[in-house]
Every structure is written in C-alpha cells, then in structure tokens.
Amino acid sequence: AQARRSPSASTIGALAAAYHAHQRPGDAIAVYRVAAALAPGDPSWTYLRGVLHEERGDSDEAQAAFTSVVG
C-alpha cells in the first residue's frame, strides 16, 4: 500500500482561491488559514485572506491579516 501524502500549502491555497473566485468567502477564509498554517514562512495566504476580508468590508479582520504579514 502506498502512503498518502499530506496536501501542500499550494494545493490547499489553490482550493481557497477557487472558493474565493466562486463567492464562497467563509470557505475561502477557513482554507486560507489552513494554507497559512502549512506554510508559516509564506505570507501570501494570510495576505489573500486579508484581501478577502477587505472585499467583504471586514476592515478589522483585514487589518489584522495585513499587519501579521508585515510584522
């Protein structure tokens, strides 16, 4: 039997982007968080989550995401 590999951050991030593109913001936000946790050194998933929050008018959440990206 072949061992299953865990999905990569880029694979999970692509799923989040698909949710984002298809107006499923709740799913996209949750999955962007998973991608960010899988690749803590890559700020893109947190940044994209911030963009989504900004699009939704969630300025506090957007600011928190952007602030964590810049440090």
Features of the shown structure:
71 residues, mainly alpha
What does it look like?
The protein has 71 residues and is mainly α. The chain has helices at 9-21, 25-38, 44-56, 59-70. It contains four helices and no strands. Helix 1 runs antiparallel to helix 2 (25-38) and helix 2 (25-38) runs antiparallel to helix 3 (44-56). The longest helix is centred in the middle third of the chain and has 14 residues, at 25-38. The model has no long low-confidence stretch (mean pLDDT 94).
Reading the helices and strands in chain order gives HHHH
Question: Biggest sheet, open or closed, and with what strands and sense?
Answer: none
Global outline:
flat
The count of DSSP E runs of length 2 or more, i.e. the number of strands, is 0
Strand content: under 5%
How large, in whole angstroms, is the Cα Rg? 13 Å
Structural class: mainly alpha
Distance between the termini: 44 Å
Concise synopsis of the structure shown:
With 71 residues, the chain is an all-alpha fold.
Topology (elements, then pairings):
Elements (H helix, E strand, L loop, with lengths): L8 H13 L3 H14 L5 H13 L2 H12 L1
Helix pairs in contact: 1-2, 2-3, 3-4
